[in-house]
Amino acid sequence: MSQDNTRDFPRDPRRPRRSMPPTGNTFDSSSSRDHDFRFILPPQESKIFDQDAPENLDTEESNFQGVDLTNNQENTAHKTISETQATPNWLVFDVGNDDIFLPISKSDQKGLETIQPQVDSPSIRIWTFKKTNSLNVHGFLCPKVPGSCEDAPPIFVTPTTASLRPTSLGVLDGMGGAGAGVAKFETPRLSISTSEALLASRIVRLAVIRALTAEVETTCNGLAESIKVILKKTEDDLRLAEKTRIRGTVIKRLPTTLVVSQIHDHSTISGTKIETWWAGDSRAFLVTPEDGLTLLTRDHVQIDDPLEQLRSDPPIENVVNMSTDFYLDENSIMVKGPFLLLLATDGVFGYLPTPGFLELGLIESLIDAQKGIAKSFANFCTTYAADDVSAVLFIRGFSDDADMRSLFSSRLDMLRKRYSLLTSMTNDDPNRNAEVERLWAIERPSYLRLSKVTHV
């Protein structure tokens, strides 16, 4: 099936957009504008590690103060790095022209280099990094509504010096339905008013990057504690508890999903170790030429079956937030041979007819990527998604792009045959549900073979 044919496959209209912005005018930079929420952007391109940001944001000009995420033994658990091992420098995805500007202390810039995104359109950003022929990374962010994107720019963090520290990926989806509150604050250079969901995904992204590039390697519990510290600091500085009335547990303060994977490049002949930590319904997937698409996470919802999750879109029970306690689940696997690791928010997979259909679009994007893998995959996702879309794809172990395409070519042929009947059906075809059930019975064993939950 060609990329053009992919655009024509039957969409499932069952799900409304889950992450909706709050209603009403919360901010208006001009009296003629009428938006759910907007903000004043700084005159220059915003960067998560801004060269002009003051070192100490605790000034009379700002009521949003810098957050010190010093990783001490009182509130975090860390793995100790050998004293003889030099602290690595880091390469990270920059936010580019993001929807919100966070004034960051200069101390956050130490040892960091940034990869700027390409702007494919006024709203779509694409990141690409190629370390060797056998290791490259692609990321993209596609807002459903430009200026209101509650998905954060994807995370990519890798050491640039000889180090035993892992490479890390991550995505975050600020939860508009659960984060209906409005956050307003002033910095020395701008005024911001936006949804708490949008702010949460950016603040937590910052906390994750700080933890991943700290002098000591963080753990799952350590990352959770670091996130709680910055969320508490944000809540206090913005006085959100005073301004927002939380009713019950449906509406949460500063809510966002999070999934982070760490790839340990120093793995032995037993394989490559991948650790994944998450909260909410953003997912991590492993894709291999032999076994195809496999889920590494399990959504924190009451309904356990992924097909039923597609149909009913159940509420999330565990998510990063400041209103209730949350936890980060974890999963660790060893992978032999070449693989793809995909981290994605629910806009990528939540509007497809079956969970495994995602593999078809991804592999077609790998093989037919005339304009680049990230752009091809983003184009596939945006043909059906009714939400913001963000993802980061890690490719490892193939000799080069030609080797990757060759190894996946036979699987692509199989997938095109598998889904040919479904793609020819309309949404109201009386046989469609039976075909979806048949396909899920085929997909399920491989799709769920590595998914597990460790939290009790």
Describe the structure.
The N and C termini lie far apart (43 Å). The protein has one domain (38-447): PPM-type phosphatase domain (Phosphatase 2c, domain 1). It is α+β, with helices and mostly antiparallel strands. The protein is 25% helix and 22% strand. The model is unreliable at 1-85 (pLDDT under 50). It contains 11 helices and 18 strands. The protein has helices at 3-7, 196-212, 220-238, 240-243, 306-312, 346-349, 357-367, 373-382, 401-418, 420-424, 432-447, and strands spanning 78-79, 90-93, 112-115, 118-119, 125-132, 135-142, 155-159, 167-174, 182-186, 191-195, 217-218, 256-264, 272-279, 283-288, 292-295, 329-335, 339-344, 389-396. The strands form 4 sheets. Strands 3-2-7-8-12-13-16 form a 7-stranded mixed sheet. It has a 7-stranded antiparallel sheet with strand order 4-5-6-18-17-14-15. It is globular. A hairpin with a 5-residue loop joins β4 (118-119) and β5.
* Low-pLDDT sequence parts: 1-85
Multimeric state: single chain
Helix content: 25-40%
What is the CATH-assigned architecture? Answer: 4-Layer Sandwich
How many beta-strand elements?
Answer: 18
Please tell me how large the radius of gyration is: 21 Å
Mean pLDDT: 78
Sequence of strands across the biggest β-sheet:
3-2-7-8-12-13-16
Number of helices: 11
CATH superfamily: PPM-type phosphatase domain
- Sheet-strand content, in percent, reads 15-25%
State the distance separating the first and last CA atoms.
Answer: 43 Å
The CATH topology assignment is Phosphatase 2c, domain 1
The class by helix and strand makeup works out as: alpha+beta
What is the count of structural domains? 1
Instruction: Give helix and strand order, one letter per element, not per position.
Output: HEEEEEEEEEEHEHHEEEEHEEHHHEHHH
The major pleated sheet works out as: 7 strands, mixed
Q: Which geometry do the CA atoms define?
A: globular
